[in-house]
Amino acid sequence: MRCKKAGKFLALFVGGDLPTENVRTLEEHLENCPNCARELESLRRTQEILKTFASESKPTLGANYWLEILQRIEALDEREQWQNGKRAKRQLPLCPFASLHLRPVVALCSACLVFILAIFIFFSRFQVPQSENFRSLRDSGNFRWSAVKPGAFPREILTRKKEAQIAISSIVPAHIAVSLPINFGGELVTKLQFSHPDFRPHPRPLSYEERGGGEVETKYPLVEDVSKLNGTVMVFKTENPKIDIVWIFSEENL
Amino acid sequence: MDGWSELNISVKVCSVCKEDKSEAKTASQNIETFERFVNAHKERIYSIAYQILRNHEDAIDVSQEVFIKVYKSLGRYNLSENACFWLYRMTVNASIDYRRKSARFQHNLIDNEAEVAQEKLIFFAPNPGDVIEKEELRSIIRSLVDKLPESQRIVLTLRDLEGFSSEEVAKILKCTQTTVRWHLYKGRRKLKEMIVKKYPELIPGG
User: Fold this and answer.
1) How many CB pairs under 8 A join A and B?
2) Predicted confidence (pLDDT) per residue in A39-66, tens digit
3) What is the pTM of this model?
4) In what order do the strands lie in the sheet with A243-248?
């Protein structure tokens, strides 16, 4: 037996808690190991000290002890009776659910209702009716649009003004990154929008950073499936002058 | 070391409980039988509560509370052969709860006492290796036992102070004997280390 294992046994051995099958091997080890024997001695001393602590004289519990219990039981009985009486009075139902066991059910139902309503409101804010949006944009005549094939990017510039350089630098399956020269007639792209039944529009770009060479890059979330881009309308808006540039990913090109 | 005497105690305890089982069943009809039940167990219950709480008034309060709980549950439970362990378990749990509730006050009290004891040790024991007053020794041990983690403290209290066998401790705490032994090992070692570190004069050669 090693000292490490013996050390674990010693603390149990000292109080007589070591299983008998281990006692023999421990005693053999103790005969040959002065270190462990010393450790045992100090543990024994600790036990002795503990025993003095345990031997502390305790007060005898007199007849008062029982009388106090009796008083407390009586007080308890009285309180219970009083509470029972109170409960009996209170049993007149205030509302139809009060007396029935329906209260938790009603609470649960209303909680569910509120939750569903909250979800509905939350998602309805993001849903852009795609076809209507597109139609109104097209009919306003305030933009140009072109059908493009997502796989064929980087794509040529689709602008109203020639000098407005907007290019898709990388696409699917990657972030759609749009970079445009910052000196684009003094304007910045203020809004970029996706709309597609399967593709939730993202009102804010993931990042918007100024790059070297006077370019501004905006990044949009990953598009995993190219076919999902079908029917997506991308709207670029500039404030000054007011220009809407629209890309549409059309089915015939995919 | 004291295994046999502790076994005697445990045998006595169980016989008391067996005797009381029949009484407890009828106690709901008769308050006198319940009084006899209380008188048979009050010392032990008080003792367990006292060892955990270390305060006479609190121990009285908790032990009485335990008996009231027994009284309230008399009609509801069919006390089996483990009735004594059930009783002790209730006492241990009630004491732990009580202690947790008043933990802040207890801590202040114990810290102060330990400090006072330490001062006494320094000033009144010019040769500390000799004799230290029993009372001072008690308050030192008390402050050290109090510093043990709860599980170790409870197991050590039941085994070494209250004298239950490790098997009985396991039954009271509803755990395995291995767990009890583990806590005993940890607790005893830690206590020894604390004494060696803080009061090396108590364990010569430690």
Assistant:
1) 107
2) 888 899 888 888 877 776 677 787 788 8
3) 0.54
4) A143-147, A243-248, A233-238, A189-195
ipTM: 0.71
Extents of the domains making up chain B? 1-101
CA-closest candidate to residue A54, choices A64, A66, A46, A63: A46
DSSP H or E segment with residue A176: strand A176-181
- Give the gyration radius of chain B's Cα atoms: 19
- Tens of pLDDT, residue by residue over B106-129, are 555 554 555 555 544 444 444 444
Question: How far is residue B157's CA from residue B178's CA, in Å, rounded to a whole number?
Answer: 17
> B32: helix, coil or strand?
helix
Tell me, yes or no, if A213 comes closer than 8 A to chain B by beta carbon.
no
Residue A37 burial (C-beta neighbours within 10 Å; 0-12, 13-18, 19+) = middle
Q: CA distances (Å), A218 to each of A128, A238, B56, B196, in order? A: 21, 14, 74, 68
What gap in Å lies between CA B204 and CA B206, rounded to an integer?
A: 5
- Using the beta-carbon criterion (under 8 Å), do A15 and B134 form an inter-chain contact? no
Nearest-angstrom CA–CA distance, A146 and A234: 10
Bridging pattern class, strands A233-238 and A189-195: antiparallel
Separation in Å, CA B112 to CA A6, A37, B32, B153:
38, 36, 44, 20
Q: Are A210 and A201 in contact (CB under 8 A)?
A: no
Are the beta carbons of A143 and A208 closer than 8 angstroms? no
Cβ within 8 Å of residue B60, ≥6 positions away? A61, A65, A68, B46
CATH architecture assignment, domain B1-101:
Orthogonal Bundle (1.10)
Of A17, A42, A45, the CB nearest to B166: A17
HSE-CB for A80 with a 13 A CA cutoff: 7
CA distance A67 to chain B (A): 9
